[in-house]
Each structure stands twice: as C-alpha cells, then as structure tokens.
Amino acid sequence: MNEQQRRKVESSPGFIAALDQSGGSTPKALELYGVGKDEYSNDEDMFTLMHQMRTRMMTSPAFDGERILGVILFEQTMDREVEGVGTADYLWTVKQIVPFVKVDQGLAEESNGVQLMKAMPALDALVERAVGKGVFGTKMRSVVKLAHEGGIKGIVEQQFEVGQRILAGGLVPIIEPEVDIHSPQKAEAEAMLRSSILESLDQLPSGDRVILKLTLPDEDDFYAPLVDHPRVLRVVALSGGYSREEANARLARNRGVIASFSRALTEGLSATQSDDEFNGVIDRSIADIYAASVS
User: What is the pLDDT of residues 43-67, one digit of tens each?
Assistant: First the structure.
C-alpha cells in the first residue's frame, strides 16, 4: 500500500470524485452530457465516448489534487490511458489524486427489501491487476430499499466479507451499502444500517481499516460514530439522486463526512461546451463540493 496515498485519503481536505459509471448507467450519463444513443452503435463505441468525457474532466486544470482526494474509476477506465499513460498512474503522478476502482458486477434482484451484489468470480484477479496499476482502493455498491433487518444484515455481511478479501489482496475497500433516498422507510433503514455496520467494524482485525460510502442521512451527524471509529479510514457520502445544491447542503451539516459524488459532480457539463466553458462549469462544481466537504 502506498503510504503517501493512505495519508492523503485519511487526513487531507477534499473529496472523492466518482467516475465509475458502468454499462447500465453509461447511456444515461452520456445523455446528460449531450451525447445521444444515435452517436454510438455498440458498447465499445459507447465506452470510448465515455472515456473521452472522463479524460476531459481529469485533464481539466480545475480537476486538481488540492481539492480532489481520489477518483473512483470504472474497470475499463483503469485499463485505458490518459495522455499516453495508464489512468491510475496519470491521476497520481500528474494530479496527485488517489485512484480507486469499482469492483462490483452490478446488483442482484431485490429480496428482503435490499439488492445484494452479484457474484464476483473475477474479484481476486481484478484486485491483483489493480495493485499492479498503482490503484489504492476499490468500491462496491449494494442498495437498501426498505428497513428489513435481515436484508440489511445480509448486505452488511456481504460487503464486509468481500472487503476482507480486498484487504487481503492489498487494497483498501470502499464499502457502499446505499440507502435509496426514495425509500418510504429511509430513516429506519439508516438506523438499522448504522447498527449493523458498527457490529461488523468491531469484528475487523485491529490493523484493518475501511472507507464507508453512505447515503446522506435524514438526521444530521447521524454517522458520527462511524466517522470516529478506529477501523474507519474515512466516511464519504454519495449524492444518491439529490441535486448538487441539495446534496451539498446536506453534506455540510454532517461533521467529518466528505463527498463522493458522481451525477452531482457532472451536473451542467456538456459535450458542446468550449474548453473554457467546460472548465468553468467543472471548476464551480468542484469548488462547491469541496466547500461542503470541508465545512
């Protein structure tokens, strides 16, 4: 593990940018960027266009390591290049931004009010490849829809079981059990989730530390016990469908929690913008998210 990267993630001001849209979410992300489905005919072309968008973001002067601690990459983005070097290598050596990679393979069908992660038969090989490319950590997402105690316990158990495999492989896992912001039982689900996460954290070996990525809670500072837990390197928040303005306002009210936004980060960006326009929009977006993360 890169000790300089670990120190930056643990204690530097800033936030983690999520650029990890995968096959299911890429068409929507491209559409919001102004690239319609009629502009590509297959997945390879689609992912190439997505990489061009991500490259434009990462190479922007506004996208800097002073405000952005880390970037979560899609596996294909990790395997591609930016300005002639591997993406993870570019982020760290050029921008001083810590690279992560999304490792989950999508969500299973809903059961007991939750969606577990699908099986990840190639996880160990992916972790090994990521270590070789200079990646620091991973991210994996599952979703809570209802306050079902058994379902939430199952999600947390799965997240931590996979997380320990990732730790054993030499990377730091971002554990992401998202609570759907539209859940009719959001506050109750968050209470069950916090309790279950605390139990799993207490069972981790003393040398292991994880990052938690959680939905912005209904109750301010609700995740303070997780922020303060000795097995937690950092607590980050997903925007979860809130507008950037709403997500930033909620984030600013939660001490010690920083952003890890995806759609809220790219809000307002367009393929038709000039470089100056594009850089201005992303600079304002980064400035707003940074301010909410350090408040």
Answer: 999 999 999 999 999 999 999 999 9
- State the total domains in the chain: 1
Residue-range definition of the domain harbouring residue 79? 19-294
How far, in Å, CA of 7 to CA of 71, rounded?
15
Domain holding 119: CATH number?
3.20.20.70
Q: Are 45 and 266 in contact (CB under 8 A)?
A: no
Q: Using CA atoms, how far apart are residues 265 and 15, in angstroms rounded to an integer?
A: 11
**213 belongs to the catalytic site:** yes
139, 176, 178, 190: the catalytic one is 176
Q: How far apart are CA 178 and CA 227, in angstroms?
A: 17
| Distance between CA atoms of residues 82 and 152, nearest Å | 39
For strands 68-73 and 15-19, give the pairing.
parallel
Alpha-carbon distance of 15 to 268, in angstroms, equals 19
Contacts of 214 (CB under 8 A, 6+ apart): 176, 177, 178, 179, 193, 223, 226, 235, 236, 237, 238, 257
CA distances from 46 to 23, 29, 75, 179 (A): 9, 11, 15, 29
pLDDT in tens, 267-290: 899 999 999 999 999 999 999 999
Whole-structure pTM value: 0.96
pLDDT for res 263: 84
Torsion of the alpha carbons at 47, 53, 54 and 58, rounded to the nearest 10: 160
- 176 carries an active-site annotation: yes
In a domain, residue 5? The reply is no
One-letter amino acid for residue 30 of the chain: L
Task: Tell me which amino acid residue 85 is.
Answer: V
pLDDT band at 23 (very low <50, low <70, confident <90, very high): low
Cα-based distances in Å from 34 to 26, 207, 233, 274, 282: 12, 46, 37, 13, 15
Question: Of 102, 139, 153, 213, which is the active-site residue?
Answer: 213
